[in-house]
């Protein structure tokens, strides 16, 4: 019985450590939302969206200067910025949502800063990858990339043809059924299904989207007159879109040799991971959350 309280205490400590690492990994998104809040309630000498664009550019440059992100990570984050901006331009034109207010840096109804809201997702994944020492096993890069592109394309095509998000999502689950993400908290190594991580990130992005619309950064048609919760279907949409962000970050981590965990027990379940020597088997124990 004496061991049970100690396990509970250790579990609570690990949960706090996990939460702390998550908070630090969200530095860019947190700074972005701070900018949204300040720009809503403080009078600025220039238009709000123009100020936010300058702020986000300085924020990105600052992350690189203090080495919170590498130049490769900045490049992939900028790539996701462009991916998001293209989606914004289309969605605003078809009336899915709108950006109130004018700005010099507003093009076709979309402020250029909008892409940074997608870039923030890429920044979070890059930060979490480093701070949790993330690695994956059983990852199928080609199939996952193809499905991520199809998911992205469906955000455009479903306005003209049948919505394919559910069948594509099911295919993604099939492809990722043996893919695990491994991460470190304190002295323990844990794992979870990669698909589950997409769902969790998607849920918190849905919460973030509610905060963004509350701060009047953009509005859905049913929020123009009075704010209300973003429809729950957006949770699924974000979970799917995270796959694109992951594919972009994974491509960088593959170049850096940090996609698969070589030389440790954690990911020696993939053809890409190398064999390990017996002494590693006791030093690097992998635990699945909830399993002691």
Automatic annotation (TrEMBL):
Record's keyword terms, sorted: Membrane, Transmembrane, Transmembrane helix
Matches recorded under Pfam families: DUF817
Transmembrane domains' residue ranges: 21-40, 46-66, 73-90, 110-129, 141-162, 168-187, 194-215, 235-252
Keyword flag Transmembrane: yes
Protein name according to UniProt: Uncharacterized membrane protein YoaT (DUF817 family)
